[in-house]
Amino acid sequence: MPQSNTALRQIRKVAVLGAGTMGSRIAAHIANAGLPVILLDIVPPGTGGDAPSHERSKFALASLEALKGSKPAAFYAVDSARLITPGNFEDDLALIADCDWVIEAVAEDLDIKAALLNKVQPHLRPNAILTTNTSGLPIDAIAARLPDDLRQRFFGTHFFNPPRYMRLLEIIPTDDTNLDDIACISHFCDQRLGKTIVRSHDTPNFIANRIGTFSLGNAIRLMQVQGLSIEEVDVLTGTALGWPRTGTFRLGDMVGIDVLAHVAKNFEAQAERIQDERAEVTLAPFIETMIEKKWLGDKSGQGFYKKEGRDTEGRDVRLVLDWRTFDYKPSTRPKFPALDMAKSIDSTAARIAQLLHADPSKDKAAAFYWPLLTELFTYTANRIPEIADSIVEVDQAMKAGFNWELGPFEMFDAAGVRATTEKMRAAGMPVAKNVEKLLHAGESWYKEDPTIPSGRLFFDPVSSTYKPVPVADGVTSLAVIKKARGVVRKNPGASVVDLGDGVAAIELHSKMNALGDDIVSLITQTLKPSSQQVTDFEAFVITGDSVNFSVGANLMQLLLTIQDEEWDEVDLAVRAFQNMTQTIKFCPRPVVVAPYGMCLGGGTEISLHAAARQPHAELYMGLVEAGVGLIPGGGGCKEMTIRSIEAGSSIRPDARGEGVEIFEALKKNFETIAKAVVSTSAAEARSLGFLRPSDNITSNRDRLLTEAKLRALAIARAGYAAPIARTDIPAPGESILATLKLAVWTMHEGGYISDHDAKVANWAAYALCGGKISPATPVSEQYLLDLEREAFLSLCGEKKTQERIAFTLKTGRPLRN
What pTM value is reported for the model? Predict the structure, then answer.
């Protein structure tokens, strides 16, 4: 591959050619990064050259409108749609002339792609990078139709759908591709789009779809051989293996059965290019019939499953297809003894080992898992170096592209490579040559090495040696750092980890990071002015390696205490939680909270009190206590009151006076709390007031820890001075409280909220307004905390609140009672 001497350049403007589902969502995600995007598509057939521009660009315009209301949401904030300029291929190709990157994303047809790229060439700037988005067409075949100079700037970029949420980006170069151009796009997509970049070889379906399609096809084959149902296979191929809870067939409905068929047929069409013991993947006859019937999954209203209204609790009722008879029947959740036994095992790796080595003669689950996983291991081991340079790319692709917790080589390690291989030999099963090479050199595909940045070595079957797992600068995790540095202090719920450079992390690691006594105690003891850690470190970061930052307070602990009527214990627990959030706020060292995933209730209160926040872009943040019949009791109401006053004061008073502006800000925050509003992105969390304008947002989850650490260091070294507890907060007072309570009464009288909803909302208004006092009366932060605690304790004593808590613990959903 040629390499130029040009420095890594910026991507400032992008064009996407093709406004279908994939192209439009790629455009939306680039707009999420704040870049202007040109989105073009064909002129509708039969539309004349004299038709108005909105008619000739109808397809692109319609796609843009659809994006604004799409589910799941394509934009972090709908306002980003303004960055997309729609147009058509006939009139608007000149718009791409100032684009740094042009992405072709039209139909999966070689001739269609080649014809469009031929029209595009005259409009490209001399150094523009051109890529094709394809799920499996040969990149070389597309490149062969381009002029020599353009081939150097051309390669494949395979986004996964939906591009906002699926982290994988497979980059597929040709022999002619300039390495600097690959580096440029890789850097942009990593840093700005949050992508996991995996380099793939130009083989059919690349990496993730190659392995994923084999796994899916094998699951369907085993279902037919073993006489299992669609529901049984979905349970077996879900969370028990660390795979998405959708399983095989629910995922198929979401992706589209026609899409799965297209990917499978890529094998057949390119069989001569595949070094594969199963070069031809044949669709099961019943799936062919489904496609003929246009039962294509969610987009057609039915596929392997179909919805049949809602039950009395508002949940979707699903029917499941009987693949033998083509009848739909009520869906149930199958039970397997092996899975029931494995539920108590938290570690996915340990669970896989138990499930794979269970006795297949005693359990249908074990009989299914043995061929499913061992054939996956053999198939994947045989693909190196055909589809990728190393096992690392394969594991990364499956984790980022299919949301597997462990890649296939990591799963093989979890099962025990030698023990599994010996059982395979005893059963007369084939063993991959690469596995034989591994067992001559070691016992596992990966080995730990805390002395290197990634913390791991991988076995390279090409050289039969172990090599460091590569990792980009700025990508790390607490798990890697702990192996290298150990832990400063810990308890069952949290740990303090030395990140180096004078920064310590407080890692949350309870179940779902629910905030119980152990986490509250460790944070308070670590951040109080007299602690050893405050002396030893310049700054702190609160974060974790888990899927979610925190689901909030430990509701089970709270409910048990309430049921025992230990009211003094509840009061002490709330005081301790408030003391923790105040310790965060007034710590002599800056505390940066780096939330991600779900950051709910108490997790949001922790964030509100930090010196700064460094959230991941995909952030589901909210003060959700109203959903269980409570209000925020750890300083959440206090902080939202302060933000309301700040916002009101920053707006120029009109003729009605400043109090009106403060009311508008407080009303918005009141509604956010009373309705338990949760953001669907960090951008939306900012609009809800949970984040400050100065808070930075991290796009790539793997970079969150590093960027939070750098943010904390920057604050510390700029001469950080901790805030002083306020005693001069001008309380909104009883006039605004009365207005908010009137709004609650109106909603209740209109039948929009229940009696208990109204009671919770009135307590929230009481806490936010500072109680029944004269407007602008100066109050202290402690005064507002005392009001929160009063409201929280009162609501804990309500039977309906206790019913809500119990229901949420049982179902994971809120109860409207």
Answer: 0.93
